[in-house]
Amino acid sequence: MPYTKPAELGYGRTDARQERANSRIRDAHVRAAEPVDKLLQNDPSLVADTMRKPDIPTTVFDLRAYDSEITALQKTLPRHERFINGNGKAAPYIYGSIQGQDLGLCFATFCTTFRCEMGVRCAWRHHPLTKAEREWIIKYGRERGKQFLERLTNFWANPEVPVPGATMHDK
Question: Contact at 8 Å (CB) between 167 and 123?
């Protein structure tokens, strides 16, 4: 049975209230997306680390600044428009990494059996891990990384293959 939104059933907001809420979400995500290029610049210590370890995937970034931007943005949104799990990102320690080496994975997509509540508006990554990323997680994540990858088979495409996040729309 396909999912039916409460508004389609006659519950919830009026069209005008819903449009105002949608407008706030669109505006907030546009504001959040503007500094992404600047925030995704590698931190000098990470660049030096990458030079020493060439097996670190190119998709690994220091996302602490972007992370705090999304967290601040989430606090400005009404409660029903926020991520259920903090700022929606899976913390790097879940797959055995550190804060400065982050894949930016969506928590709902990679760590639960629920679909991401933000869908295409999500600021975090939904697309599957590459072979290089999996190897990196196994090598540096040790036991925690192996457990993450084992559990991932139960989560990533469940209940369905996720839509690309907002970061992938121009790719």
Answer: yes
Spatial distance between the Cα atoms of 36 and 59, rounded to a whole number of angstroms: 14
Q: Per residue in 110-145, is it b (16+ CB within 10 Å) or e — as a string?
A: bbbeebbbbeebbbbbbbebeeebbebbbebbeeeb
Amino acid at position 95, single letter:
Y
At 2-14, the pLDDT tens digits run 555 555 544 555 5
- How far apart are alpha carbons 90 and 48 in whole angstroms? 25
- Say if residue 34 is exposed, middle or buried (CB neighbours under 10 Å; 0-12, 13-18, 19+): exposed
pLDDT band at 165; cut points 50, 70, 90: low
Q: What is the pLDDT of residues 96-119, one digit of tens each?
A: 999 889 999 999 889 988 888 888
